[in-house]
Amino acid sequence: MHKLQLIDISKAFGSQIVLKDLSLEIFPDELFIILGSSGCGKSTLLLGILGLQQFDSGQVVIDGINVTTLRPGERNIGYVPQNYALFPNHTVFDNIAFGLRLRKVSKNIIQTKVRQLIDDFGLQGLEYRFPFQLSGGQMQRVALARALIVEPSLLLLDEPVSALDIETRQKIKAELKELQKKFHITMVYITHDHQETLELADRLGILNNGTIEQFGSPDEVFYKPKTLFVARFLNTENMLKGKIIHKFGNKATIQTNDIVLKTYTSLELSEGDHVTMCIRPGAIHLSTHHMQPGKNVFIGTIESIHPIGRDLEIKVLVTPKEVLKIRISRIVAKELKLTHGMSVTLSIDEAFVHLIPVM
Amino acid sequence: MRKLYLKAVNKTFEVTNYFFSFVLIAFMFLIIGSLFFTTTPSAFFQQMSSRVILVSIAVTFGSSFLASLIVFVFSVPTAYVFSRKTFWGKRILETVVVDLPLSFPPGVDGLILLLLLSRTGILGKFFGYFHIYVPYTFTAVVLLKLFVSIPFMISFVREAFDRVDKNIENVASTLGANPFQIFYKLTFPLSIWGVLKGLIMALSKSLGEIGATLIFAGGLTSSTGTMSVLIYFATQKGDMDKAIALAIILEFLTFILLTVIKFFFREKNHKFHA
């Protein structure tokens, strides 16, 4: 049950500002994901939390104790880097026991604890193998066991599944969630992968320009991006520019180039304000039956059909200037016999039209 | 048809490689091996009983081992600093310490050391106050061997340190290891093959050194007469039996030494080394 607070963290390399007054609170037992593109300062933040690099200013506080000036080993933070960084000249057993040996723990306790973790991580029979004799998944488990043996307050994971094949990646992700529950450990996970974030995060923060642009639950951040950067970074498929033409309470009517959409919003907006509407493909219902155009219902023609993983992305031309993207499964698309140029009806759930004010 | 063509290309490539390898290996064997056919066993063993030769073996190997030991002690930390630290003027420092000495023509090192440590040199004057005179002594032999082998050692060891994943050291640090523990438990063992390669190079360079020895150590006394210098003098005087005997011993002992080192630190047993 450990909590991490980052208070007004700043770091620059020469004239390049990497982190700027970044503040963040990570709650006990949660898996917090820091999501950002490469070069956004993720690694600098991580190295600073670990104490492997000094921040220019700000504080790192764990359980109310300021650890900013402590050495990495004194902060009690477990670390699993992207490439696992297993000690190549040590066996699996010695890798896991490394932290305890440094603490001069008795041999009996080391034996018991290492054996326990070897069982927990399913590493039986691999104790005397060297890292080069292990698979990616096995290396990952050893790296986790090595970090956890010293009972750290926090576990920092730097893109821990990016080097694995898809199958192992899914397996490890499930194991990480189980691990979090089993060891009641606060985890900070760094990645650039949206899918991973949606699957794993209890909460997440989007890092951009040296600061956390938005944080919240995956649903909050993915479906209600606060800024255009977040919306774009999270590949919001449908982003339409428009103007509020009517506002009453939390109900708003927005006019784009050619269409009018209704939605709810808690934002303090007024008529005439310019906004960007974000609509996730899942919020758009596609039908081959013709309905009368009306409130958030549009008739359009299929412009293109692209396979994306197990689904198909369908672009529908609603007006000559507005294209909406919808994602449906291949089976449903087959049943509906969708083809290019086909006329379809789209209805948009007004609860899922999210607005971002344009300054 | 295409299959036959590809087969022919593969074969040609293979044969070409074998041909050039064979020519090169034959050339090396011819030169190295020719020594053994240019003398008779009786002449060789007669020379072997000469005190001068036995002393020169001791001087050559003694000074080389001592120089390599000192090189090892000083070069490993220096290579670590070059590998891990970033500071202003690092590139210039590396050029002066590593690259420049490597490009010196034979003898220039000896000349520099002589100018520095002769009675009129900056350091020579200083040592003179304590009645210490370095040129033309055994210390001079060790010093110049040190000077010529340092660049090799630093360059190999630095490269080995560079290859050690920084994340390994980072993880060890988060687990509570201090810099000494990280170095002797991880960085150094992981770089051991590079360190050994550096040592082998340093030792080989020391054993074969001649130009600088002639200038800075002279090689005329029993304490400075290395095998390479004696070979040179013997050849100049036309004493070919002595020159050949010395060359055979030098070649043989160097071969044994390098083989022993390579055997004990076989690369296939150290897959995890940088």
For this entry, give a set of tags.
heterodimer, A: Rossmann fold, OB fold (Dihydrolipoamide Acetyltransferase, E2P), 2 domains, six-stranded mixed beta sheet, five-stranded antiparallel beta sheet, 20 strands, 25% helix, B: mainly alpha, 78% helix, flat
Overall description:
The complex is a heterodimer of chains A (359) and B (274). By secondary structure, chain A is of the alpha+beta class. Chain A folds into 2 domains: 227 residues, P-loop containing nucleotide triphosphate hydrolases (Rossmann fold, 3-Layer(aba) Sandwich), CATH 3.40.50.300; 85 residues, OB fold (Dihydrolipoamide Acetyltransferase, E2P). Chain A has 9 helices and 20 strands. In chain A, strand 7, helix 5 and strand 8 form a beta-alpha-beta unit. In chain A, helix 2 packs across helix 3. Chain A is elongated. Chain A starts with a strand and ends with a strand. In chain B, helix 3 runs parallel beside helix 7 and helix 8 runs antiparallel to helix 9. Chain B is an all-alpha fold and 274 residues long. The two termini of chain B are 46 Å apart. The radius of gyration of chain B is 23 Å and the shape is flat. Chain B has 12 helices and no strands. Chains A and B meet through strand 6, helix 2 and helix 4 of A and helix 8 and helix 9 of B.
